[in-house]
Task: inverse folding
């Protein structure tokens, strides 16, 4: 049921002109040097609203790519931070471990505290990596 909703979001963003408005907002707050880091932080937040990496990129690609082209940022300057932002926050909403939790007779609340530490560490390490290697 979620994927038709994502397709609808994509259609609204693309067809309504919202894509240009959001891209303009990114361009107004970012520089070519800061854009990859902004994409990383933005993707970390957006992963809570659209938890599917591929579907999320379909929704976000029109305005992220437009903003990257406007700022003359190469495409890898947004793809890598996008992927890392998605992976970082997947530590906090780990759909990947649902079968393991079921097999171990655990609930999500039983492991959340343990996942906060690697998520925080990943956030710091990836932020530093993007700053020094992509900017």
Result:
């Amino acid at each position: 049921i979620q994927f038709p909703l994502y397709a609808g979001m994509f259609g609204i963003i693309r067809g309504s002109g919202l894509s240009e408005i959001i891209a303009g907002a990114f361009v107004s707050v970012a520089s070519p040097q800061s854009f990859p880091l902004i994409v990383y932080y933005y993707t970390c937040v957006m992963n809570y609203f659209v938890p599917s990496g591929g579907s999320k990129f379909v929704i976000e690609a029109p305005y992220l790519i437009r903003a990257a082209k406007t700022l003359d940022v190469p495409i890898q300057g947004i793809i890598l931070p996008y992927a890392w932002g998605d992976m970082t926050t997947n530590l906090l909403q780990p759909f990947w471990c649902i079968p393991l939790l079921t097999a171990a007779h655990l609930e999500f609340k039983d492991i959340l505290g343990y996942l906060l530490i690697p998520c925080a560490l990943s956030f710091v390490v990836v932020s530093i990596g993007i700053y020094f290697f992509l900017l």
The helical segments are 2-15, 18-29, 35-46, 53-71, 76-90, 98-104, 108-133. The radius of gyration is 16 Å.
